[in-house]
Specification:
The complex is a heterodimer of chains A (445) and B (480). With 445 residues, chain A is α/β, with parallel strands linked by helices. In chain A, 24% of the residues lie in helices and 38% in strands. Chain B is of the alpha/beta class. Chain B has 2 domains: 2-80, no CATH class; 99-425, no CATH class. Chain B has helices at residues 2-21, 33-42, 47-62, 102-111, 115-121, 133-146, 153-159, 161-167, 178-186, 427-435, 440-451, 453-456, 461-475; strands at residues 149-152, 191-195, 205-206, 221-226, 231-237, 248-249, 252-257, 262-269, 283-292, 298-305, 310-313, 316-319, 325-334, 339-342, 345-348, 354-364, 368-377, 385-395, 400-409, 415-424. In chain B, helix 1 crosses helix 2 and helix 3 packs antiparallel against helix 9. Chain B is globular and about 70 Å long. In chain B, 50% of the residues are buried. The chains are: A alpha/beta (445), B alpha/beta (480).
Chain lengths: 445, 480
């Protein structure tokens, strides 16, 4: 049996009352996935990322959504947010909390949305992430029956963030989940959505998530993806954004956990005034592998994008960055900036970066830059001359390197959590124990 | 043994009539082992050379055309190409400049090319115009004194077989890529340079001065070896549009720099770009690679690419020796329907190796241009350093400019920087020039020349002056 067949064998029996369009899509996804199979490193898009760890795996499906409440409370973001909680892809109503959600906003699990509002979401679900985007979106189309649907009526402003918590459990048999997230932001609506991946330390599951974001005229969405899953988790994600006139999409992609993480970000700027910001930070150690592929399609004149991705790599970790800016013929007066900087802390770490520009219009200002290097020894010396010992100096400079991305993060709780995580995981030669202690003492006081 | 079988095969085919064919000067279109045997025989090559060609041919058969480049062209029928044609006899060529296409002459005029050179470039039978023998003789004497070997690759195979055997294919192996494999099988001409230990080549070497340069053929093979502490500057091509009937050009250039050696390789390419619809232009599929084998060696590529319908070219450096240096300076100009996918590879293997990449792309008309580059730093290349800058200038709203820089970095002590920008000629710059009485076309050419300055200053003096003139001619009609 081929690997795709082995995966598709796990498809649950179809429910009799499922709408026919859902069934048809499932079938199309399965057929497509079986036909193309898993990508290999011969595919340009997967040149630096080997997914055999996934393809060779044997993953079941979770049968329940139990998760220890105390454990959850100790792990969750210290943030007042509406939240939907999923455990290995199954919805956990007990841990979820949507109280006080404004009237114009609807937040529901996908299963419920399909049952109750099939017509409202049917046209949008899968519109941006079809079966052709990648083998993993095809696989997702075949399996997806759970996830989150967020709908904002025109003019609705949701003050508190909406947090989608995806928990991964340490199971006897590893499981896979294929959550879908659909965000439909009506004209001039505003919201902050967090996708938070975490779980038990021993978890070794496969998560294949697809997110679609549709922004109507003037809508503003801040999207956070905080990846803190266990160091054995396998994670494939794609985020697809469709922007109309004067809409704004801000992505914060913060990647700390996971054994293998692949993120695809695709934003289509389809009308004048649309603006996209991509902010990314990844910190990887051990044998972690993180691959960020980003694409901005400037399909209309006077659209703007700004991208800043930073990577810190230690031990034998492997990082990949592929950023592409596309400017369509006649899409004039574009401004597109892209920057990728990488810090290598170890000789055995590897980074492969490829910033691409594909431009078919002449009245544009586009630039990209990519740098890879180590800490500036003069800066280390400068700090040491001021009485800071060497490990501390290195740690401070590493944090400062991440700082440029982190200072864009508007949610303080997330910024602090990520900075602490980076500080706490820095190697011993970057000893920050004192600093962390001091910070904790200050906070307690 | 496979090689024995091959030999038998070759011998058998000889019997079947190719011996009789040797008198003929041009082969009918098509490619098989007998064609390769014919070329080899015609060139009077030793057995090892024939074996090498056949090995390349067999590898080529197993390969497929690369499709990753940002290029669009119909598939090439390799059986429709004639792989050998003897140099044209003087009586077949135009006998004087009067017989040459006036459009071509007009371009020469604009480029300011000396009269006698125009004739040579237009393919006029050389002895009808001026005697180049005297030039060549003094030139050869001077090189001989210095001990520099400079001859065609065919002569080198005959006269210096040990050197050729030692170095040929060591930088670009036969099976390196589709076009290199094809070239290895069927190359008919090219240059060979050997600069002995400690010698600084007394003059700039140019294919133009080589006696048979008038017919360079479509599958050129160039091999340049610079021994310890030696130096050479080599110029390839010329700024004038060249008459050429071959549509497919698949050249291979190999450079070897031993300890402390320095090779500077400059190219100006201005082949026929095709008509307004892009039909009939040259396909330029070139593999160029330099090997900095010795410590402290240095290889520098400078190219000005303005011609050809399609350019597929990535002059590269393998930086093996400690402290070795690789450089790539490029100006690529495309207009009309031209397509160019060009760039470089810098492979850092040795400690403290350094590389610089400066690439300037100018796209006008309905052309499409891509910079594609790779900077790879191996885990042992401690302290490696790269700086890359690639800027694109777009003239008109129907062209495209693209950048695909790959960086693969496996060493924490290395520093790699990449910067790229894409923009058009700023209106305020144009306005500034216009306000001072400079007409628009001159203003554009001034701004474009300024844009390319970093690269032009790397070119040898006369080349740089011609390159500037060439740029203006290429961009003619793209403004307004």
């Amino acid at each position: 049996m081929s690997a795709p067949q082995r995966f598709l064998e796990r498809l649950p029996a179809r429910r009799g009352d499922e709408p026919s369009w859902v069934a048809a899509r499932r079938q199309a996804g399965a057929a497509r996935f079986e036909a193309i199979g898993f990508p290999t490193r011969r595919d340009e898009e997967w040149k630096y990322t080997d997914v055999r760890r996934i393809a060779d795996g044997d993953f079941g499906l979770a049968t329940h959504a139990d998760y220890d409440r105390d454990q959850f409370e100790s792990q969750r973001l210290a943030l007042d947010a509406y939240q939907l909680v999923f455990v290995d892809g199954r919805f956990n109503a007990e841990l979820s909390d949507l109280e006080g959600l404004p009237a114009g906003a609807s937040v529901q699990p996908l299963s419920q949305a399909i049952d109750q509002d099939a017509e409202a979401i049917g046209g949008s679900l899968g519109r941006l992430a079809g079966v052709d985007f990648s083998p993993f979106t095809a696989l997702s189309t075949a399996f997806a029956d759970e996830g989150a649907v967020i709908r904002l009526a025109p003019g609705t402003v949701v003050e508190k963030p909406i947090s989608l918590v995806m928990l991964s459990r340490a199971n006897d048999v590893p499981v896979m989940s294929h959550p879908r997230v659909l965000i439909m932001a009506g004209a001039n609506s505003e919201a902050t959505v967090i996708e938070h991946y975490l779980g038990e330390e021993e978890a070794a599951n496969f998560t294949n998530v697809v997110t679609e974001v549709l922004l109507e005229r003037g809508a503003i969405i801040d999207h956070y993806k905080l990846q803190e899953a266990s160091l054995s988790d396998l994670h494939i994600a794609s985020i697809h954004v469709d922007q109309t006139r004067d809409s704004r999409f801000n992505s914060f992609n913060l990647s700390l956990g996971g054994a293998l993480v692949r993120n695809d970000l695709v934003a289509d700027l389809n009308a004048e005034g649309a603006e996209t910001g991509y902010n990314g930070l990844f910190f990887v150690q051990g044998r972690q592998h993180v691959d960020n592929h980003t694409l901005v399609n400037h399909n209309a004149p006077r659209t703007f994008s700004n991208e800043n991705y930073k990577g810190i790599l230690d031990d034998r970790a492997h990082g990949v960055f592929n950023g592409k800016v596309y400017v369509k013929r006649d899409a004039q007066q574009i401004e597109a900036y892209q920057n990728n900087a990488n810090l290598l802390l170890s000789d055995r770490a590897e980074i492969d970066t490829k910033p691409e520009l594909v431009i078919y219009a002449d009245d544009v200002k586009c630039s990209h830059g990519a740098t890879t290097g180590q800490l500036d020894e003069e800066a280390v010396y400068g700090l040491r001359a001021r009485g800071i010992d060497e490990p501390m100096a290195r740690a401070l400079l590493t944090l400062a390197f991440a700082g440029e991305v982190m200072e864009q993060v508007k949610l303080h709780a997330i910024a602090e959590r990520v900075e602490r995580a980076v500080a706490g995981r820095l190697p011993e030669r970057f000893n920050l124990a004192d600093l962390v202690e001091t910070a904790e003492a200050v906070q307690e006081a | 043994m496979a090689s024995e079988e091959m030999e038998q095969l070759v011998r058998r085919e000889y019997k079947q009539g190719f011996v009789t064919d040797i008198e003929s000067d041009t082969l009918p279109p098509g490619l098989d082992e007998s064609v390769i045997a014919f070329i080899s025989q015609k060139k009077g090559e030793p057995q090892w050379m024939l074996d090498w060609r056949l090995e390349a041919y067999h590898r080529w058969l197993e390969m497929t055309t690369p499709s990753w480049a940002h290029l669009d062209y119909p598939p090439i029928d390799y059986q429709a190409i004639s792989y050998f044609s003897a140099p044209k006899k003087p009586e077949d060529r135009p006998q004087s400049l009067d017989e040459v296409d006036p459009k071509l002459l007009e371009t020469y005029e604009k480029l300011g090319i000396p009269l006698h050179e125009r004739a040579a470039l237009a393919g006029v039978a050389v002895d009808a115009v001026f005697d180049s023998v005297s030039v060549t003789t003094t030139f050869k004497e001077k090189l001989g004194e210095a001990g520099v070997i400079f001859c065609s690759i065919s002569e080198a195979i005959r006269d210096y077989p040990e050197l050729v055997q030692q170095y040929l294919g060591t930088v670009v192996p036969q099976s390196d890529n589709y076009f290199a494999a094809l070239n290895s099988a069927v190359f008919t001409d090219g240059s060979f340079v050997y600069v002995p230990e400690g010698v600084k080549c007394p003059m700039e070497l140019s294919t133009y001065f080589r006696i048979n340069a008038a017919n360079t053929g479509q599958f050129e093979r160039t091999l340049i070896i610079c021994d310890k502490r030696a130096q050479v500057s080599y110029l390839e091509g010329c700024t004038a549009p060249q008459r050429d009937e071959n549509q497919l050009h698949a050249a291979v250039v190999e450079l070897v720099a031993l300890e402390d050696a320095y090779i500077k390789y400059s190219t100006v390419q201005n082949w026929y770009p095709g008509d307004e619809d892009g039909k009939g232009g040259i396909y330029n599929f070139v593999t160029k690679r330099g090997d900095c084998r010795g410590d402290r060696s240095r290889i520098s590529w400078t190219q000005v690419e303005t011609g050809s319908a399609i350019t597929w070219k990535y002059p590269s450096c393998m930086l093996r020796g400690k402290d070795s240096v690789g450089e790539f300076y490029s100006v690529a100009v495309t207009n009309g329907r031209q397509q160019a996918d060009t760039g470089t590879k810098m492979i850092h293997l040795g400690e403290n190796t350094r590389s610089t990449i400066i690439s300037k792309g100018i796209a006008a008309g309905r052309s499409d241009q891509a910079y594609r580059g790779l900077v790879k730093v191996g885990s042992r290349a401690k302290g490696a350093r790269n700086y890359t800058q690639c800027d694109s200038l777009l003239i008109g709203d129907q062209c495209g400019a693209h950048t695909f820089p790959y960086q693969e970095i496996g060493n924490s002590t290395s520093t790699v920087e990449h910067e790229a920008t894409t923009s058009k000629i700023a209106d305020d710059q144009l306005f500034y020039c216009r306000a001072r009485g400079i007409d628009e076309e001159d203003a554009v050419s001034m701004i474009v020349n300024g844009f390319c300055k970093d690269v032009f200053q790397e070119l040898p003096m006369e080349f740089a002056v011609e390159a500037e003139a060439l740029l203006n001619v290429t961009l003619e009609g793209s403004v307004g």
